[in-house]
Amino acid sequence: MSDNGENKYAVDARGLSFRYQEGTLALNDVTFKARRGEFVALLASNGSGKTTLLKALSGIIKPQHGKIMIDGEDINSMSSKELYSKAGIVIQNPDDQLFGATVREDVAFGPRNMDLSEEEVETRVKEALEGVGAGRLGKRAIQHLSFGEKKKVAVAGVLAMRPNILILDEPTAGLDPAGEASMMRLLSKLNRECRVTVILATHSVDMLPLFADRIFVLSEGRVLKSGPAADIFTDHEMIEQAKLRLPYISSLLHEMKRLDGVPINGLPLTIGEARKRMLELIPEDILIKQLDEKNHE
């Protein structure tokens, strides 16, 4: 597929503005783009407009101003069935999305409404559940699932529609650290191996440097900045304006550099980067001595 011109964008939204009936201006001239196969994060504190933007991108609400293109086609010219086959949304609380009696029935709902054969529906249900690591849950009643399992089943229900674009609102909210890591690895796998364009909204910053190709920072309905993690988290003034924070490892090394004068090169965003930067501070002869001692153990 050509990567030239407009066709390279899975989502191309320009000049979006949306005001709720009670008067809240949730989106104010927002432009957002995601290339095909890209992993894009919307980073914002609560009440900044990120959920409203996701609802607009998935066709749940219609902005008063602006234009949204999905795979090069105006969202307003697409039927609901066409739109949902291209872009699927997973909302924050899975209890608001899951309504089938069993996991299998819930995941089958979307494909059945696409007028597919029952054989194709079953194929998609099996594929989607296995894809999120929930293949064994097919016969389980929804109310008997853990919160983390519900999150995975909600993702499976969207994947069964086989969209090119997966839109998620706070997919790790309410999960323990292991569940958060598991969900992010799942989304990364779908993105890297299946080439699904992933767009997720979050206010959790620690894992984004590991997974996101680009980050959009929203505040009070506007985009403050967009770019790779390294560009975003080195803009301390902007991070403060958006009422966000640095990843914990970055905060620690930033304070060591600022308060203790530790000559750290750059601002590491992950533990791996931090280890590399710290090793650079250790004299080479000490490192060689430690390596020799380890080899003789």
From TrEMBL:
Q: What is the protein name stated in its UniProt record?
A: ATPase component NikO of energizing module of nickel ECF transporter
SMART domains on file: AAA
Protein's membrane topology? Peripheral membrane protein
Q: What is its main location?
A: membrane
Q: Which family does it belong to?
A: Belongs to the ABC transporter superfamily.
User: InterPro entries attached here?
Assistant: AAA+_ATPase, ABC_transporter-like_ATP-bd, ABC_transporter-like_CS, ABC_transpr_CbiO/EcfA_su, Co_trans_ATP-bd, ECF_ABC_transporter_ATP-bd, P-loop_NTPase
**Xref: CDD domains:** ABC_cobalt_CbiO_domain1 (cd03225)
Q: Which GO terms describe its molecular function?
A: ATP binding; ATP hydrolysis activity; ATPase-coupled transmembrane transporter activity
**GO cellular-component terms in the record?**
ATP-binding cassette (ABC) transporter complex
Q: What are the subcellular locations of this protein?
A: Cell membrane
One biological-process term from Gene Ontology?
cobalt ion transport
PROSITE patterns given for it? ABC_TRANSPORTER_1, ABC_TRANSPORTER_2
The residues covered by the ABC transporter domain are 11-245
Q: Which keywords has UniProt assigned to this entry?
A: ATP-binding, Cell membrane, Membrane, Nucleotide-binding, Translocase, Transport
Please verify whether the record's keywords include ATP-binding: yes
- Organism of this sequence: hydrothermal vent metagenome
